Amino acid sequence: MSTPSPHCLTLGALIQCRPGFEPDAAAELASRAHAARLVGPVSGAPRSGFCTLTLAEPLPRDLLQRRLDASQLVFSRQSFQVVAVLDDLPERDRLTPLVSAIAAGGERFCRLLLETPDTNEGKETSGFLRRFEPLLDAALRDAGLLRPDSPHLPRLHVFFANARHVWLGFSAPSDGSAWPMGIPRLRMPKDAPSRSTLKLAEAFLTLLTPDEQKATLRPGLQAVDLGAAPGGWSFQLASHGLRVTALDNGPLAPAALATGLIEHLRADGFTWKPRKPVEWMVCDMVEQPARIAPLMAEWLASGRCRRSLFNLKLPMKRRYEELERCRALIDQRLRHAGIKYVLRIKHLYHDREEVTCYLTRR
Q: I need a labelling partner for 80 at 20 to 30 A (CA). Which of 112, 212, 281, 304 fits?
């Protein structure tokens, strides 16, 4: 992977998040920045849909990239290093100052990501951006700044906080989200029992590598779905050909059972155990996160499953603190069992008050 030249400087980082989660995104970013010995304030206006780290002194871009792995931030949908901020863009000609500012950075890019916050104001700006994007794309290509044939180059982010205030930055192709604003464009399956099936589909795409998806989402593998009703997650697993044991005292939708790959058991997800180890255990039970986290760790520690994907329903306040508490509970059980593990967590676009976690042995 190529990184921007080390002599180029960055002003900080911008993290896009779900509106209303700015305190959690800012708390996490501040904690990671402190651990990385990065000095500067972190701020995020309420309901703005983003927060920023402003470095006290600009740093070489490759240094910030090494110290702060923004792709690991839970509450970040999308992230990039900030190289310039443009205030009060003229309404009649936004193109000229934008191209000039981008050219001044001395970088070339493989992709243009034109973004707004996921807010009502951002949605109003998005109509303008759809018309503006081809103009900016063409101007950058003409200037030799946009090279889609060079995927090793960084991606260019042009983030319109509003119609006249723009943050410019870059990200490495392996960082952040592949989707603008971190919002995947997923199509609802025709017969899916609920929209929760999109949550699991996004989790597979976001939390698993392509090789992991290919190896673990294969026909014939066994899966367990705890708290399955009405069957959206079981349906998603079955769409990959997995055979699913769906546990819930409530009914499953006929569309889920019609797949022929789902067996419904009316049982308690906290006490039921499979006869043999399964490849996957997934869980979307509405329960206290401090009850779910140890249960997930126990399934992995005891060998009941090889990997699990689950939601933690976070409280309305102090979400970040509760998440760290759950991390500690999982770590405590798996360390006691002498198990090295991988835990990836993300606040997905299709999540609301929960975060989605992937847990497997290392």
A: 212
The closest of 280, 244, 273 to 259, measured between CA atoms, is 244
pLDDT in tens, 307-344: 999 999 999 989 999 999 999 999 999 999 999 999 99
End-to-end CA distance of the chain: 24
Q: List the strands of the sheet with 354-361, edge to edge.
A: 262-265, 243-247, 222-226, 278-283, 305-313, 354-361, 341-346
Tell me the pTM.
0.93
Q: Among the options 313, 317, 340, 346, which is catalytic?
A: 313
Q: How many helices (H) and strands (E) does the chain have?
A: 10, 14
Residue 113's CB: how many other CB atoms inside 10 A?
22
Tally of residues, the chain = 362
Residue 3 pLDDT: 38
CA distance 195 to 175: 28
340 is catalytic: no
Q: What is the mean pLDDT of residues 109-117?
A: 97
DSSP letters, 62-87, are HHHHHH--GGG-TT-SEEEEEEEEE-
DSSP per position, 26-52: HHHHHHHHHHTT--S-EE--TTSSEEE
Spell out the residues 6+ positions from residue 231 whose beta carbon is closer than 8 angstroms to its own: 193, 194, 225, 246, 252, 253, 255, 256, 257, 262
132, 114 contact by CB (below 8 A): yes
CA distance 359 to 306: 9
What is the set of domains in the chain, with CATH numbers? 9-182 (3.30.2300.20), 196-361 (3.40.50.150)
Burial class (CB in 10 A: 0-12, 13-18, 19+), 67: middle
- Orientation angle between helical segments 120-142 and 95-104, nearest 10 degrees: 70
Res. 7: pLDDT tops 90: no
